[in-house]
């Protein structure tokens, strides 16, 4: 063997070309730019998705809600009894009207018991059932609230939260 040793440089996976000194900083700058672009895009999307306050809407133009207590009605279905559980909310023109209606809510719920005596369970199935409940609550509420100076409640102003026919 000869006394002269052959020097072989170590290979690194990060080197390109002869010296490869510029590859690692270039790779780090590219990764940093991708991170900054992702963060900037997220901020832009977050700003666009943030709900902005509607222009020109005051507190008096916001609707008011008067929830009725949970009502359960027993219906006669021939040889067996069926039960309907309903939770309803009245949507009114303003929160002031909702405060005026609050004392009448038990009277409306009690009048609904009388209204539901003649209903068959078959008439409450499907979308026709929710329409029937809305119209019944609207009629009862109009009758009970007649003494107040509140605009009539059309069927679209009665919101059904929950309706279960067992």
Quick rundown:
With 166 residues, the protein is an alpha+beta fold. Helix content is 39%, strand content 19%. It has a domain at 63-165: GTP Cyclohydrolase I, domain 2, CATH 3.30.1130.
Descriptive terms for the model:
single chain, 166 residues, alpha+beta, GTP Cyclohydrolase I, domain 2, four-stranded antiparallel β-sheet, 39% helix
What does this structure look like?
With 166 residues, the chain is of the alpha+beta class. The protein has a domain at 63-165: GTP Cyclohydrolase I, domain 2, CATH 3.30.1130. It contains 4 helices and 4 strands, in the order H-E-E-E-H-H-H-E. A hairpin with a 2-residue loop joins strand 2 and strand 3. Helix 3 crosses helix 4. The chain is elongated, with a radius of gyration of 35 Å. It starts with 22 loop residues before the first helix and ends with a strand. The relative contact order is 0.13. The mean pLDDT is 78.
